[in-house]
Amino acid sequence: MTKELTDRIALEPLIGSGWSMVEGRDALTKEFKFESFHQAWAWMSEMALWAAKLDHHPEWSNTYNRVQVVLTTHDCNGLSELDVALAKHMDAAAR
What we know:
Elements: H1 12-16, E1 20-21, E2 28-33, H2 37-54, E3 59-63, E4 66-71, H3 81-94
Antiparallel strand pairs: 1-2, 2-4, 3-4
Helix pairs in contact: 2-3
Protein backbone atom coordinates (compact mmCIF):
# COMPACT_ATOMS: atom_id res chain seq x y z
CA MET A 1 0.00 0.00 0.00
CA THR A 2 1.27 3.47 -0.89
CA LYS A 3 1.90 5.90 1.94
CA GLU A 4 0.13 9.24 2.12
CA LEU A 5 2.28 12.33 1.53
CA THR A 6 3.21 13.71 4.94
CA ASP A 7 5.70 16.40 3.89
CA ARG A 8 3.46 19.00 2.26
CA ILE A 9 6.49 21.20 1.59
CA ALA A 10 7.04 18.95 -1.46
CA LEU A 11 3.91 20.53 -3.00
CA GLU A 12 5.24 24.10 -2.95
CA PRO A 13 7.27 23.89 -6.21
CA LEU A 14 4.27 22.26 -7.92
CA ILE A 15 1.89 24.98 -6.78
CA GLY A 16 4.44 27.48 -8.10
CA SER A 17 4.39 25.79 -11.50
CA GLY A 18 0.63 25.95 -11.95
CA TRP A 19 -0.70 22.96 -10.06
CA SER A 20 -3.52 23.61 -7.59
CA MET A 21 -5.41 21.64 -4.99
CA VAL A 22 -8.77 20.18 -5.99
CA GLU A 23 -11.56 21.57 -3.86
CA GLY A 24 -13.01 18.91 -1.57
CA ARG A 25 -10.30 16.32 -2.37
CA ASP A 26 -6.72 15.62 -1.41
CA ALA A 27 -5.65 15.88 -5.04
CA LEU A 28 -3.69 18.11 -7.42
CA THR A 29 -4.91 19.42 -10.75
CA LYS A 30 -3.41 21.24 -13.72
CA GLU A 31 -4.39 21.98 -17.29
CA PHE A 32 -1.68 21.58 -19.90
CA LYS A 33 -2.07 23.42 -23.20
CA PHE A 34 -0.22 22.40 -26.36
CA GLU A 35 0.01 23.84 -29.86
CA SER A 36 -2.07 21.06 -31.41
CA PHE A 37 -4.09 17.94 -30.75
CA HIS A 38 -1.16 15.89 -32.05
CA GLN A 39 1.23 17.38 -29.47
CA ALA A 40 -1.28 16.89 -26.65
CA TRP A 41 -1.83 13.26 -27.64
CA ALA A 42 1.92 12.60 -27.97
CA TRP A 43 2.49 14.05 -24.49
CA MET A 44 -0.32 11.90 -23.06
CA SER A 45 1.19 8.80 -24.68
CA GLU A 46 4.60 9.56 -23.17
CA MET A 47 3.05 10.23 -19.75
CA ALA A 48 1.04 7.00 -19.93
CA LEU A 49 4.27 5.02 -20.38
CA TRP A 50 5.93 6.91 -17.50
CA ALA A 51 2.88 6.38 -15.26
CA ALA A 52 2.95 2.65 -16.03
CA LYS A 53 6.59 2.51 -14.91
CA LEU A 54 5.56 4.11 -11.61
CA ASP A 55 2.47 1.87 -11.42
CA HIS A 56 0.51 5.06 -10.86
CA HIS A 57 -2.06 6.51 -13.21
CA PRO A 58 -3.60 9.97 -13.57
CA GLU A 59 -7.21 10.95 -13.90
CA TRP A 60 -7.20 12.97 -17.11
CA SER A 61 -9.17 14.15 -20.10
CA ASN A 62 -8.22 15.61 -23.46
CA THR A 63 -10.04 18.20 -25.54
CA TYR A 64 -8.21 19.21 -28.71
CA ASN A 65 -4.94 20.80 -27.48
CA ARG A 66 -5.69 20.74 -23.75
CA VAL A 67 -5.14 18.00 -21.20
CA GLN A 68 -6.76 18.33 -17.77
CA VAL A 69 -4.95 16.22 -15.15
CA VAL A 70 -5.93 15.23 -11.61
CA LEU A 71 -3.43 13.37 -9.45
CA THR A 72 -4.31 11.49 -6.28
CA THR A 73 -3.48 8.06 -4.91
CA HIS A 74 -6.53 5.89 -4.39
CA ASP A 75 -4.62 3.37 -2.22
CA CYS A 76 -4.11 5.99 0.49
CA ASN A 77 -7.14 8.14 -0.37
CA GLY A 78 -5.02 11.24 -0.90
CA LEU A 79 -1.73 12.56 -2.18
CA SER A 80 1.41 10.44 -2.11
CA GLU A 81 5.02 10.72 -3.25
CA LEU A 82 3.91 9.04 -6.50
CA ASP A 83 1.72 12.06 -7.28
CA VAL A 84 4.60 14.46 -6.69
CA ALA A 85 6.94 12.39 -8.89
CA LEU A 86 4.40 12.15 -11.71
CA ALA A 87 3.55 15.87 -11.53
CA LYS A 88 7.23 16.82 -11.76
CA HIS A 89 7.71 14.54 -14.74
CA MET A 90 4.62 15.93 -16.47
CA ASP A 91 5.88 19.49 -16.01
CA ALA A 92 9.33 18.62 -17.36
CA ALA A 93 7.92 16.81 -20.39
CA ALA A 94 5.49 19.64 -21.19
CA ARG A 95 8.26 22.28 -21.39
